[in-house]
Amino acid sequence: MQISLLRITNRLGVCKVNIMATRQSSDLSKFKENLKGAKNIVILSGAGISAESGIPTFRGAGGYWRKYQASSLATPEAFKDNPSLVWEFYHYRREVAARAQPNAGHIAIAKFETKHSSNKNITVITQNVDGLHVRAGTKSLIELHGNLYKTRCTKCKEVLINMDSPICEALANRGAPDVNIVGSDIPVKSLPHCKKANCGGLLRPHIVWFGESLEPAVLEKAGEAMESCDVCLVVGTSSVVYPAAMFAPQAAARGATVAEFNIETTPATPDFHYYFEGPCGTTLPQALDV
Ligand code: BJW
Ligand code: ZN
After folding, report:
1. Is 106 a catalytic residue?
2. Which ligand has the minimum distance to the alpha carbon of residue 150?
3. How many Å apart are CA 39 and CA 110, to the nearest integer?
4. Which residues contact residue 127 at a Cβ distance below 8 angstroms, ignoring those fewer than 6 apart?
5. For the chain, how long is the longest CA-to-CA vector?
6. Is 258 helix (H, G, I), strand (E, B) or coil?
7. Which of 145, 193, 206, 273 is catalytic?
8. Which long-range contacts (CB under 8 A, 24 or more apart) does 5-10 make?
9. Whose CA is nearest to atom 8 of ligand 1?
10. At what angle do helices 216-228 and 244-253 cross, to 10 degrees?
């Protein structure tokens, strides 16, 4: 049983809070029937799916690097103020993700896609930037927030895949998450730069930071998949970051079946039909029958 708070504001602007009880089903066989009858399926994933691969999530205890909240470094302002610090943070994350392996949750999704490729359209939309869905074998993937292994030139805007480790000499042995390390002092000229003739601009991670717009083409593709899906699985996301946070509630509102897989409920849980509690490395293989 989920308890949700419904805020109602009357004509005088007085807000009263009603406590509503709504029930999400956790009936796995009923969900499997929905899945069997579905033609268009979207799997929307967040940091929780990579937690079992050892990649920290954004919110909660793991969401810190040194003394900084991860979300405070994922901003254009932080990069402008201290590109050295932000590059150290991303260098650390690139190294962690490169060592990580896809887990049972990523693999279940990839196997499910292969198994049903002849009779279903399955699209994975991820907020993650770690590349683990691709490494697990997922083919139809939309990366909403970019990728740790892509760079973008701040001057000519060229986007390139870059798997170098370290990405530049000055970042070798940097990025340690130790809370006692204060500041970062790599000169800007020693950070990654564009190699294109006549450019030489400073590179940045090709990642969507807070306050930045998602790429229109990516957003459009994700919107199309969301609008046409009849079943949506929402996996390991806190459902608080927009625009991704509104995708599944909107799909549920127009009648699609939405199932959430998470170790805890989220603000969006009351909008959904199913809630499967637990680590998705365990719940997904069961639900997807792979
Ligand atoms: C498990 C588990 C296990 C653990 N099994 N589960 C409308 C209203 C209000 C604000 C806005 C709005 N529209 C836009 C905004 C501003 C902002 C925003 O949403 N702010 C909110 C915080 C309020 N959005 C933006 O700025 C976006 N841009 C945009 O919309 O542009 C237009 C615009 C701008 C400004 C105003 C209005 C319009 C861009 C968002 C970019 C997000 N970027 C980040 C960082 C970059 C990536 C990186 O460096 O790695 O992306 S933020 C961070 O959050 C990251 C994630 O992709 C994203 C989502 O987090 P996620 O994946 O949900 O992770 P967590 O940690 O939050 O949750 C993990 C979950 O897993 C938890 O629920 C756990 O329980 C669970 N879990 N282990 C299953 N084993
Ligand atoms: Zn350039």
Report:
1. no
2. 1
3. 17
4. 44, 45, 46, 47, 144, 145, 237, 241, 244
5. 64
6. strand
7. 145
8. none
9. 242
10. 20
pLDDT of residue 61: 75
pLDDT at 14: 44
Say if residue 270 is preceded by a cis peptide, omega within 30 of 0: no
pLDDT tens for 144-189 read 999 999 999 999 999 999 999 999 999 999 999 999 998 999 999 9
- Per-residue DSSP letter, 214: P
d(CA 290, CA 277): 19
What is the reported pLDDT for 8? 38
pTM: 0.93
In angstroms, the CA 119 to CA 250 distance is 25
Phi, psi at residue 161, to the nearest 5°?
-75, 135
- From 53, 210, 235, 247, give the residue whose CB has the most ligand 1 atoms within 8 Å, as the site to mutate: 210
Q: What is the pLDDT of residue 62?
A: 77
Residues in the chain where the model's pLDDT stays below 50: 1-21
Tokens of 210: 């807070």
> Ligand 1 — pocket residues by CB below 6 A?
46-48, 51-52, 57-59, 71, 74, 127, 129, 145, 207-213, 236-238, 240-243, 261-264, 266, 279-280
Amino acid in the structure at residue 238: S
94-97: Cβ within 8 A, 24+ apart: 94/148, 94/149, 94/165, 94/167, 95/165, 95/166, 95/175, 96/54, 96/55, 97/55, 97/130, 97/131, 97/132, 97/148
